[in-house]
Amino acid sequence: MDVLTVKNLSVSFFRPEGEIEALKNVSFTLQEGEILAVMGKTGCGKSVLCKSILKLLPDIAKIKTGHVYIRGEEITGYSEKQMQGLRGRFFSMVFQNPMTALNPCMSVGEQIGEMVRLRHPELSGRERKMRVAELMELVGLDHAGERAGQYPFQLSGGMAQRCVIAIALAAEPAVLFADEATTALDVTVQAQILELLLKLRERAGMSIVLVTHNPGVAARMADRVALMRDGELYRIGDVEEIFEESTPN
Amino acid sequence: MKKKFPVISMLILTIIVFLCLACGLTMTKDPLYMDLAHCNEAPGKEFLFGTDEMGRDVFSMIWYGGRISLTVGFLATLISTMLAVLIGSVSGCASARIDGVLMRLTELILSVPGLLLTVSLQVVFGRADVYSLSVVIGLTGWMGMAKVVRTEVVQLGNTDYVLAAKCLGGRFFHVLFRHLAPNLFPSVLFMAVMHVRNAIVAEAALSFMGLGLSVEVVSWGSMLSLAERALFSRAWWMIVIPGIFLTGTLLCLTNLGEYMRGSANKRHSNLG
Amino acid sequence: MWRKFLRNRHLIKMVNNIGKFLISVFVLSVLVFTLSRLAPGDPLYAYYGERVEKMSVEEQDQARERLGLHAPLFTQYVRWLQRAVHGDFGISYQYKTDVKEVIAAGIGNTLLLGGLGFVLIFALALFLGLFCAWREDRLADRIVCRIGTVTSCIPEFWLSLLLLLIFSVWLDWLPSSGAYAAGGGSLSDRAVHLILPLSVVVLGHLWYYAFQVRNRLLEEVRADYVLLARMKGLSGRQVLYRHCLRGALPSYLSMMAIALPHILGGTYVVETVFSYPGIGKLAYESARYQDYNLLMVVSLLTGTLVILCNLTAQLVNERIDPRMGVRSASAGGEVRRL
Q1: Digit-coded pLDDT (tens) for C123-142
Q2: Using CA atoms, how far apart are residues B19 and A206, in angstroms rounded to an integer?
Q3: What ipTM describes this predicted complex?
Q4: Residue A2 near residue A67, CB atoms below 8 Å
Q5: Which phi and psi angles does B57 have, rounded to 5°?
Q6: Which residues pair with B57 in a beta bridge?
Q7: pLDDT tens digits for range A196-219
Q8: In this complex, do B116 and C295 lie within 8 Å of one another by their Cβ atoms?
Q9: Which of A248, B167, C258, C279 is deepest in the core (most CB within 10 A)?
Q10: What's the maximum distance between 2 C-alpha atoms anywhere in chain B?
C-alpha cells in the first residue's frame, strides 16, 4: 500500500507584487520502505513540495488545488491542530542546515528529549534520558552522556546533523523528508550521513523522500527518482531507467 | 514590503506646523493680552478654547505657544544632531584608545538621569529663555545618537565595499562623503525626528515643573504649568487642550520617525 | 599558587569590572560636584533665606566659612570627598538636617512606587510582547500596537494631570496627592494613594519595553529552528513559549537591568505632580531651591545605580546567552578602521 500519495498539487505564493506559482500539478506516490529522490535545480520547488505536504509554509502560501493522502486517508483539508498530530508522528523532516535548524539556546539532549517526550509522554524522566542516549548512539554520536549537555555551537556540522536526524528518528515516523540533508556538509561526512540513513531505513522500515540536487546521491540511495523543473514534476521512474536515459551516449 | 507612508500623520503635522508658523493669521486675539474681565472662561463663541486664569485667550496661545515649542524642539535637535554626528564619527574613525575614552565618557553622561542633567545645566546657564533652553536640551540629548552613529561608522568601515573603495585608492574624504554619508543619512534622519519629539517633551516637562520657560513666555509646556491650579478651579480646557496638541504632535512625529527607520522585516514568520 | 590565582579568568574579569565601576563613580562625582558649584545662586540664600540680606558682610563671611564655601573648588571637592567617604554628605540647606536623613525619609516611598512599577511593567511587557508576537500582523496585534504607540507618546506629566482631572476632580474616587492621608498610613490607605502614580509610571514605560520584547520575539520566530520545533508537532504557541522565549530571554534580562534606573528616574515627574514624598520630589525641590548638597547626593545615588545596572546588563549578556561563544568567535579578530 502507498504510504503517501500526492495528486495534482498546486501551490502559489501570494505576494503584494503578484502570485508566484511554486508547484504546478505535482503528482507522485511513495511506497512503504521506499526511498524516493526528488531532483532538480535550486528554486524548482523541491523544498516547497515537502513543506506544503507538512503544511509548514508561511501564511502567504496557499494550496490551490490537489489532494494529499496518507495510507489512503485524505489529509488535504486537515486543520493546523490535526496536522500537529501528524507532524512528529507520521512525518518527520531533516533540514538542510543543521546549525540553524537546532535551537541555539537549548542543549541537544534537551532538544532530542523534547521529541521523545512528545512521542512517548508516558516515559519517566530516567527512561527518557536513556532513550535519548540510545538515539544518539544510533546516529553515531559517541559519549552521549556528555554530548547531551552541549549546545549546537559546540558541535561540528556533521555532528549537529546527526542530532537533527536523532530528533527525526525519535518521532518514529512513517515518512522522513530529508531536505538537502547533506548539502551543507563536507564530502566525507556526507557519505557517513547517507550511509546512516540507509541503515536506518533497514532498521525502522520507514520511507524516505530525499530531496537533493546531486545526481550521485540520488543514484546511490534511491529506489525511484522524480525530476522537477519550474515547479513541475515532469518525470518519475526507477533509478536505472532515469539515469540511463538522461546520461548521454 | 515597504512601510506605508503615514499620510494622515504627515497631514496633521503639516497643518499644525503651518498654523503655528502663521500664527499671526490664525490668532483671533492677542495671546499675551490679559483680559481680566474674562478669567477662567470655558470654551465658547468668543474664546474658542476658553481663557486661562489670567484672562488670556487659549486658542491664540496654542498657535503662538506652539511656535515656541516647535522652535525649541527644532533648535535642540539641530544642536544634538551636529554634536552626535561629530562625536560619533570621530569616535568611529579614531584609534581604539580615543574611541574608548569618548565612548566611556558618553556612557557616563548617559548615566546621569536626563532630567537632573538638564536641570543642572539650565542652572549653569541661568534663567531660561527659548535659546538657552534649546541649547541645554540639545547639549543633554546627543549621547544616544552618538553611540548609534559610532556603531554605524565602525560597521560601515568594516564592509567590503568601503575596503574596496580604499583599495582602489579612494582618499579618506572621498570614502567619507561618497560611502559613509549616504549610508549614515537614513538612521541619523530617523533619530533626528525622534529627537525633535524628545526635545519637545523635555521643554514641556521642564516648563511644566517651573524649571524651564516661565509662565509669561507662552509655550505648550508653560501653559500646562498653570494646570495644577486649573485642577482646583476645574478649568479642564486648560489641561486638556494644550495636552492634546502636544500629544498629537508627538504622535505624528513618532509615526513619521518609524516610517523613516526603513522598510519592515522582509522574511516571513515560520510560526504559521 | 599566586600565578594560578592571577590566571583565573573570572577573577581578573571581576577585578576589572569593579575597577571600571569605581572609576565611573569617581568621574561622576567630579562631574556632579563641578556642575553644582558652577551654578549661580548663592547657597547661603538657600540656607538662611531672606535673612542673608540683613546680615553684615562679616556675618555672611563667617557663615560661608562655616559652610566651607570659601575654599577653591578643588579643595572643596577634596574636603567633600573626604567627608563623603566617611558617610558624611553634609546638611541639606533647605531642610536643615543631615542629607542622609532627608533621603532616608524618601527612599522607601520611591522604592515602593518604582519597584512595584518595575515589576508590573516587566510582567505586562512580557505578556503583551508574547501576545503580539503570537498574533503578529493580525487584527489584535495591530490594535495593541496602535494603542501602545499612542500611550507611549503621551507625556507622563500630562497623563498624570489627565488622570487627576478625571479620577480625583470629576469622579472624586481617588486622592490627588501624597503617599497617605494625614495621620493615616494603613495599608489600604497607602494602596489607594498609589493607584494613580503607579498607573502613570506603568503606562508611561510599558509600551516601550513590550514593543522591544515583541520585536525580539519576531526575530526569533523567523529563525530556522522554529520549523524543526513545529516539525516535532508543537503548536505555534508552544514553540513561542518553549523555544523562542529562551532566545529572547537574555535580551529581556539585560533590558530589565538597564530599565531599572530609567523607571526609578521616571518617577521624578510623577512624584512631583502627585506630591508623592520620594527621592524624585526631593530632586525636583533641591534643583528648584538650589539645595546643592541634596541635589548632589541624589544625582550620585541615581548615577551610581545606572552604572551598576549597566554593568549588570553587560554581565547578563555575556553569561546567560550560550550563543555568545559563537558570536564572539565570529565577531572576533581585528576590527578594521577607516
Answers
A1: 999 999 999 988 888 888 88
A2: 74
A3: 0.88
A4: no
A5: -80, 115
A6: B51
A7: 888 888 887 889 999 988 888 888
A8: yes
A9: C279
A10: 77
